Amino acid sequence: MTIATVKRFSIAEYHRLTELGFLTENDRVELIKGQIIQMAAKGTAHEVCLTRLLRELTKLLSERAILRCQSPIVMPTDSEPEPDFTIVQNREDEYLSSHPSPAEVLLVIEIADSSLSYDREVKLPMYAESGIPDYWLFNLPENCLEFYSQPYQNSAGSFGYSLKRVILPNNAIALPGFPELYLDLANIFPRLR
How many Å apart are CA 25 and CA 19, to the nearest integer? Predict the structure, then answer.
């Protein structure tokens, strides 16, 4: 009896699939630990939160850092996730020569409604393993921001963040690396009028 195995792709093979036309920009996929993963459909609450974050973060950051929206990060674990937002260090070529590496990432932001467990159980440990210092998860079902920082590896070899804070939507929070810049969460979370 033959046991089926999963084909895992390197980042180079993943890019080659795009060059050959097997994957296009319209395919909503990302490479996670060598597997091509279909991304969840985006609901209206996700899109409203994304739009509001884009507006507010652009105003706050100005030219202090580069804000990337649904753009890849190249990770050493044969992963190329496309988080909702990434705040990365300024670089002269604005990442034309390559996507950012974890060392250039200041903050990763995911917006979660139907993807909440995936963003906690798959993406959070992957970001921690890569040494990304701060991870924000906009938890739309519970209407709060989960703020994770201080990546670590436990004795069993699992990765996570040693600090988790829950921030409610009537609060403001400083952007990691920019203690003078506060994001007012009341301007971010979707609400029916």
Answer: 11
Residues 34/5, Cβ–Cβ less than 8 Å? no
DSSP letter for each residue of 19-75: HTTSS-TTS-EEEETTEEEEPPPP-HHHHHHHHHHHHHHHHHHTTSSEEEES----B
pTM exceeding 0.85: yes
Question: What is the DSSP pairing of strand 134-139 with strand 105-112?
Answer: parallel
3-state secondary structure 60-112: HHCCCCEEEECCCCCECCCEECCCCEEEECCCCCCCCCCCCCHHHEEEEEEEE
Of 186 and 43, the one with more pLDDT:
186
Q: Name the residue ranges covered by the structural domains of the chain.
A: 42-187
CATH of domain 42-187: 3.90.1570.10
Q: Which of 127, 45, 40 is nearest to 81 (CA)?
A: 127
Amino acid identity, position 103: A
Which amino acid does the sequence have at 38?
Answer: Q
| Cα three-residue angle 88-159-130, rounded to 5 degrees | 30
- List, for residues 119-162, the tens digit of each pLDDT value: 999 999 999 999 999 999 999 999 999 999 999 999 999 999 99
